[in-house]
Every structure is written in structure tokens, then in C-alpha cells.
Amino acid sequence: LTVLNAGRRYLKAEDLSGKVFVTSGLGGMSGAQAKAAVIAGCVGIIAEVDEAALLKRHKQGWLMEISNNLDHCIARLREARKNKIALSLGYHGNVVDLWERLVHELDKTGELLVDLGSDQTSCHNPFNGGYYPVQLGFEEAKQLLSTNPGKFRTLVQESLKRHVAAINKLADKGMFFWDYGNAFLLEAQRAGADVEKKGANKTEFRYPSYVQHIMG
């Protein structure tokens, strides 16, 4: 319902075939995102750093494909988008790399490859394994978390700033991004990322929450 309503409200589209939804998280509640993309008929690219979560969703049948190669992900995205094929593709990697690659494609070709975007990393718990920084691989980041949590925190906040910077560039060209109630925008703001709504008070963000703006 969230994906369908986002399409209705922001894309003015009842039919999401050929539309691209990019997000992250295939763990607990977030695991349903892959299934939702296919039910809604769009192309869903979902990033996840933990291979166990990807394999679990694939085994369930909720996730159609898995790849750890961004070139392959972009090629599959273009193919499914062109042919209006419903697809759920799990990218085994950090979502910041995926967002930055989409910015690179935009800069290189002028083509905006994503229509809808969100995030379901566990940003209510960002410094204890809920969000993994893009600067490190999954296992390396887990090791740092246990040996130097202060450094891990710093890297998470740097990663959040990069995360938002990429989203902002794509949103400026017409992608519609929303917050999934996971404290992503709040933690990004605390990290110093550019998420404040211009001309509004500091508790308002430039992107909407799914609760009030989409499900409401």
C-alpha cells in the first residue's frame, strides 16, 4: 500500500509498471519491500549488507534475484524498466554505493533511473548495528563496532551525509523520496546532513513521512 500510494500521490500513476523503487533493508519488517515492489508491479532494487538476510528472502520467494555487482544491477534495472517487468533485485552491498551509482548514471547520461526512493535501515539504532557505514565492508564494520564504537559512530555519520547528498541530487531531478518511520531523516539531521525543509522549523524535513503523507 505504501508503494502504490506513493506512486498515486507523487507520480500521479495508478500503474507502476516501468517505474523504479530504490530502498534498503531486507531484514525484519524491511524484508517485505521486495515483495511489495513486485505486487505493485514496479522494479524494486533493495540494498542489503547482510548476505544472510538476502538469502533468506530469496529462499522465501520474496526476492527474485541477488547480485553484488552494481554494473549488473544497473543493466537489469534498465532492462526491466524498458520492458515494464516487475522485478525485485537484492543488491548485496551498501545502499550508499547504490545511490551514488545512480547519481553517476544521471551525471553521465542525463537519465534519471529511479522514480521512488526510501530507506528501511534500522536508524533508530544506528550506532549498534542498525546502519552500516559505506566506508567499510560488512565484516570489517562489525569488527570496528566491537573494538572502536566511537570510530564506528563517526563513520556512520559521515556515511549518512553521503547517503543524503546522493538522494538530494536525484530528488532535485524528480525522484520522490519518503521516510519510512525508521528515524533515517532524524539521524541524518543529527549527523549534519542537508535534510531540513527550507523556510520551516527544524523539526520539519524536506522529505515526507509515509505515515502522514502517504498512508494518511
From TrEMBL:
Gene3D superfamilies for the chain: Urocanase like domains
Query: What are the protein's GO molecular function terms?
Result: urocanate hydratase activity
Tell me the superkingdom of the source: Eukaryota
Q: For this entry, list what GO says about its biological process.
A: L-histidine catabolic process
Pfam families recorded for this chain?
A: Urocanase (PF01175)
The record's listing under PANTHER family reads: UROCANATE HYDRATASE
The protein depicted here goes by the name HUTU hydratase
Organism, scientific name: Scytalopus superciliaris
The gene is Uroc1
